[in-house]
Amino acid sequence: MRILVTGGAGYIGSHTLLQLLREQHDVLVFDNFSNSSPEALKRVKQLANADFEICEGDIQDAGRLDQVFGDFNPEAVIHFAGLKAVGESNEKPLEYYAQNVAGSIELLKVMQWHNCRRIVFSSSATVYGDAKYLPYDEHHPLQPANPYGRTKYFIEEIIRDWAASWKVASAVLLRYFNPVGADASGRIGEDPNGIPNNLVPYISQVAVGRLKHLNVFGADYDTRDGTGERDYIHVEDLARAHLAAIDFTATHTGCDAINVGTGRGATVLEMVNAFEKASGRSVPYQIGPRRDGDVARSLAAVEKAEHLLGWKAKLDIDDMCRSTWNWQSANPEGYRQD
Ligand code: NAD
Ligand code: UD1
Question: Tens digits of per-residue pLDDT, 68-114?
């Protein structure tokens, strides 16, 4: 099938591309490389031993999208492109609304011009906000606590209205929990710019010696060991969820939001231990104050994904830490070394 992948050069996009290519799909990547490297795509081509087209462009540019849709004529879109840093979204909210929300509107418009009716969108568990109950199921109230989270919420609503107005349209909003890990080859992985905001990239940079120690954001939460608990999901499992969602859109119309997690949580200290075991390195840490805006626990209800998509996570935190270490130890400077 012909699938246009926006943001395909990024962390989750590159892992999903690899699986799409292995399943013989015909893909085109549309990316402005604002947070990624063409090197990732070069490596995906090598790993899959397959070629695909790459178009450099911004999703806010309807003219460019129109041209690419005209040439490639995709049957479906996987929409990863967007900005994703919570802290930055507080400082530059308009930039987040322009790229994420306005960019998604341009994409949906162009899809309709070209009669492309199927979309899988990267949403986030961050749309839920503070937990009224756990695990979060898809009916949990939506109260995102920052501009980034609100862009995801608004895009979800816009896609829902788009699908309601165009009866043949089919949309899946995948609400990712905490994606971590890397392809088992160690050739592609998460390569954040600057000092990582997220836990697992931070831990792996401590283990490889780029950072001195981990700052644990709070040890006084109401959890097993007092540190924050999250539902970490292996990026390979997450990539597989996109293939299942694309299949689902072939036979369904309308719009469904679906959680993508494991249903199991790990605390910060459990992650540190698992990483030390996987890497054989020590991960020194210091307990510090809580980070503003953090919740104590986040866990996914996973029944809807299994019921609608026939998808279930298979990999555990040991697999996540092992594959992260494979990637980080072979590429201590990420994609920058080649
Ligand atoms: P990423 O930054 O690695 O990938 C995003 C890609 O989109 C990058 O290649 C970037 O260059 C591209 N891009 C950004 N703005 C663009 C624009 N205006 N036009 C064209 N290309 C653009 O991020 P990721 O971790 O792979 O996340 C992919 C998607 O999943 C994002 O929408 C993100 O918000 C969402 N998501 C990520 C996480 C996570 O923890 N990584 C969690 C929940 C949701
Ligand atoms: C963060 C984002 C969320 C986004 C998600 C993507 C914030 C407030 N939230 O969530 O919107 O969808 O990433 O995966 O940024 N931790 C430390 N030390 C660190 C880093 C993290 O102790 O250096 C702790 C955090 O307090 C948390 C856990 O590790 O308990 C996971 O943190 P992180 O990886 O940033 O993910 P989230 O907080 O879930």
Answer: 999 999 999 999 999 999 999 999 999 999 999 999 999 999 999 99
Q: Catalytic site residue 153?
A: no
230 lines ligand 2 (CB under 6 A): yes
Closest protein CA for atom 16 of ligand 2: 199
292 CA closest ligand 2 atom index: 8
Residue 215 phi/psi, 5-degree rounding, is -95, 120
How many angstroms separate the CA atoms of 134 and 136, rounded?
5
Identify which ligand lies nearest to the alpha carbon of 265: 2
Ligand 2 within 6 A of CB of 90: no
pLDDT in tens, 228-272: 999 999 999 999 999 999 999 999 999 999 999 999 999 999 999
254: CATH: 3.40.50.720
Pocket test of ligand 2: the residue of 142, 150, 198, 204 to mutate, having most ligand atoms within 8 Å of its CB, is 198
Q: Is residue 307 part of a domain?
A: yes
Q: Which domain holds residue 42?
A: 2-181+232-262+300-314
Element (H, E) at 62: helix 62-72
**Count of structural domains, the chain:** 1
Contact criterion met (CB below 8 Å) for 174 and 242:
yes
Q: Which of 166, 54, 67, 167 is nearest to 108 (CA)?
A: 166
If phi over 0 gives left and psi between -120 and 50 gives alpha, with beta otherwise, what is residue 254? left
Cα 13-310-237 angle, rounded to 5 deg: 35
Classify residue 326: in a domain, yes or no.
no
Within a domain: residue 205? Answer: no
190 within some domain: no
Report the C-alpha gap between 184 and 236 in whole angstroms.
Answer: 9
Ligand 2 binding pocket includes 215 (Cβ within 6 Å): yes
